[in-house]
Design brief:
Shape: elongated
Distance between the termini: 75 Å
Radius of gyration: 22 Å
Mean pLDDT: 87
Number of domains: 1
Number of strands: 5
Strand order of the largest sheet: 3-2-1-4-5
Oligomer: single chain
Number of helices: 5
Strand content: 15-25%
């Protein structure tokens, strides 16, 4: 009986210790460097997901409508935080999304006031352009929206 109690107590202590150092759930979020869309979810042990969200950008909506066969994604992690049993963050990890993430709220407004040709040009640049040109174009989104609003 005492041996059984010691084993149960040992297992409880081990579980308590592990619940503080091992993530119980992980919040994940990804940004598409080509469209500015975002997808996120909470991942639990055994791989099941909850709170799945997909926020399609206006640029992706435009590409689906006008150029459906050309739409591509490049998903880059920008959140990968693991939480312990008490909801405290204990593990962090993410990638390096491109500059489009920084202007996402402005990208939506930019798409509303920009011609189809300019949107297509931006999308092509994001897929094929070099980082300096992409950054220059993204900076143009900031300035154009600042001028309008």
């Amino acid at each position: 009986m005492m041996k059984k109690l010691a084993v149960i107590l040992g297992l409880c202590l081990a579980a308590s210790f592990l619940s503080v150092i091992c993530p119980v759930y992980t919040k994940r979020a990804f940004h598409c460097d080509y469209t500015g869309s975002i997808k996120s979810w909470t991942e639990w042990p055994l791989g099941f997901k909850t709170e799945e969200v997909y926020r399609k950008s206006k640029l992706e909506e435009f590409m689906e409508l006008k150029h459906p066969g050309e739409l591509k994604h490049k998903w880059v992690s920008f959140q990968g935080t693991g939480y312990d049993i008490f909801g405290r963050p204990i593990v962090h990890g993410h990638g390096r999304p491109g500059p489009l993430l920084q202007v996402r709220p402005y990208l939506e407004k930019w798409c509303e006031v920009t011609s189809d040709q300019e949107k297509t040009r931006l999308y092509e640049l994001l897929i094929h352009g070099d980082q300096k040109e992409i950054q220059k174009s993204v900076d143009g989104i900031w300035s154009r929206i600042e001028d309008k609003y």
